[in-house]
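2,4-dienoyl-CoA reductase [(3E)-enoyl-CoA-producing]: structure tokens wanted.
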Amino acid sequence: MATDSPFRPDVVRGKAALVTGGGSGICFEIAAQLARHGASVAIMGRRREVLDKAVAALRSEGLRAVGFQGDVRKQEDAARVLASTVEHFGRLDILVNGAAGNFLASPEDLTPKGFRTVLDIDTVGTYTMSYEALKYLKKGGPGKGPSTGGLIINISATLHYTASWYQIHVSAAKAGVDSITRSLALEWGTDYDIRVNGIAPGPIGGTPGLRKLAPDEMAKGSRETMPLFKLGETRDIAMAALYLASDAGKYVNGTTLVVDGGLWLSHPRHIPKEEVKDLSKAVEQKPAGQRHASSFHPLVLRRNDWEEAMATESPFRPDVVRGKAALVTGGGSGICFEIAAQLARHGASVAIMGRRREVLDKAVAALRSEGLRAVGFQGDVRKQEDAARVLASTVEHFGRLDILVNGAAGNFLASPEDLTPKGFRTVLDIDTVGTYTMSYEALKYLKKGGPGRGPSTGGLIINISATLQYTASWYQIHLSAAKAGVDSITRSLALEWGTDYDIRVNGIAPGPIGGTPGLSKLAPEEMVKGLRETMPLFKLGEKRDIAMAALYLASDAGKYVNGATLVVDGGLWLSQPRHIPKEEVKGLSKVIEQKVRASGIGVPSSKL
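Answer:
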């Protein structure tokens, strides 16, 4: 049955989707939620009775659904099912690659045939379905305009992010799926305007996969080690798919969104917290020369100019965060002003914090002119006393604090040889230490049992990061170090405060966003023009794209997302220059194949 959704009921109306493995479990729920929100849905599976039952369930709700029998391992089945879907609905906008196979096996008991079977379903099946779907999803395809492509969502896992016992086969398979996601996001985003993203579920209750892989005793033990102390629901994964499929996620490309409550980054707590406190005191009492100095550092982008943002139609319900109170640092301009505005437009009471009174006053006046509940507090995130005062004032004003957005930042261009340690430290003090300081002082308000909150429900921290540190960026050694620290803070607090205080902690990593002080300062117009030409989606992001990501995380749709940093950059961070034109690649491949065949050594058994 449909339940109250954070999204508008028509958020994907007019779109057609095909979901492989959609007969049961997570993928059935994805199909159901897409259909409940306006899409026409086809599901594909190997077993006719499962398909028929699933389609009947969807149609009993008055939803538009059809089922096609097929095996993703067979290219002819993939081609037939995709063609049938387009024939039935007249178009294809969304492909969800969810078909998967798994079982428990130690490597010494797993034959190469068994290993290959899982890769054939998960990895090769994902590629095969995507390959055959290209003609329908690309811009100019059936029912599509000349500049608008579709979306592929690949269902992955978190097992391969570290290592998992008895899962060498599915770990390798899902690592391949994640790589496919990144590669297609780059190549097909660039050439065909197709966005490609992934979702990596953690353990999800009530699914065939969990029952097969984790008996009740194991699932109970797993819950006890999870930061949020609970299994996820199939709906959590479906809400992630809706976010990616809706206009809210239109600038997300090449990202695999982890929805696991923070489990993948969890480690056993070997020392009780009280013992840690005693140990810390003992270390502190040692002579200074025997102690190691430590420091934390932050990074953020400074907003200088303010722009009034007009409300546009949102994919979310207008009351999706009603009753919540938020504090946004750096909220006087740019990305963080838009985050504050969208939270307020969707029902939240919002406080913004910044160093300059005139910027704050102008931003608050703009929000109030829309009839929104907003207040501004002057303060510097580098000063602990300012952090404590602003947080206390926010709670005094609204009676509670549910959401802290750490967005204050500073940046500039500088080569390492021209950047003094003082300049380097300044950025870390704002971004990294500022993020930690605000979070540290907010704990008492955000933890379960805090002001205005029940004994088992904590709040949310969103840390604004960047993508510069994921590879390496010229003249950005200071910001890259600072944001790497922010990402690490996100993971650490998600683990520790998720476990102890039911506080979710997530990040958002924006790419280049048009109309922001950060972009105008760091990239002149000529650079921006060149940048657009190398981006998979050929466009800059909008401030609204980042605000929609924040709304997703703050709403019930993102309630099982913890410890994740959501990259919203159109796929730019994973982009590489295309050194060889596509036509030359085809010709080169044929030449190489002919040479190999002529040599008589290593003759390929299949053609490209």
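Residues 16-264 form a domain with the Rossmann fold fold (CATH 3.40.50.720). The chain is about 45% helix and 10% strand.

Cheers.
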